[in-house]
């Protein structure tokens, strides 16, 4: 199968996945207990006041009708209006997307090169003290939950030593890079452990394969064998793991933003759920769904391209 036909099939599947997710999210949010109109009416609300709020917000209309209207607005990036403030949901997304995108992009940019470097070093020193040390550190870090690691880092480097800001309170996240150091360490710790182990295992298998032995018999330089022929095959499972890591990253960012008080999409989501601001929750769900599907699509295409081929090295 060619890359173009494979990409077309994956894009079609991705669109169906997004549609399924946004549909499920809408009706799950509709099933949440409570009533936004009652919450907005305040203490001891008057039934007439509640009915007025419901009518003004369109909550008195059937859910399928509101879903159809909401769905047709998504291609125009019209996610509706906040029930709590009346502001467009897009304003909430634009206000919180900056810190979240910076955290997520920096994590992904640093994740693959560091993971590949650690995995290749361990594979080239298989069984050595370095390999055993990297394995021990990976297992230890992978067993620590994100919130626990965040609390330890804040206590040690933010409070006791005072080397880095413990939280983003009173700081401009986009203008002060030091604020992002501890959150990035938390977000990178577990994915680096898992991906580097995949790279190590893939590299060890590739270096022991028949085509590598054949390349050595042909007199090809060892550096070229390792990094041009063995490494691409070792990267294929790692790329797939990066896609799964991105799924985890969406949840990890919410935890990290809450612990470090970073005003990103995670904070917006927590506030919207607490206020039962359904359109904001639905808009964030659409953003997360599209991001997840897009990243998995790219990972599948890269993995398809890097998949081991049958041709002989020459």
From TrEMBL:
Coiled coil: none annotated. Keywords: Cell membrane, Membrane, Transmembrane, Transmembrane helix, Transport. Gene3D superfamilies: MetI-like (1.10.3720.10). The chain crosses the membrane at residues 101-124, 144-163, 175-193, 248-274, 280-299. SUPFAM superfamilies: MetI-like. It is a multi-pass membrane protein. Residues 97-299 form the ABC transmembrane type-1 domain. It is found in: Cell membrane. Pfam families: BPD_transp_1, BPD_transp_1_N. This is ABC transporter permease. The lineage of its organism: Bacteria, Bacillati, Actinomycetota, Actinomycetes, Pseudonocardiales.
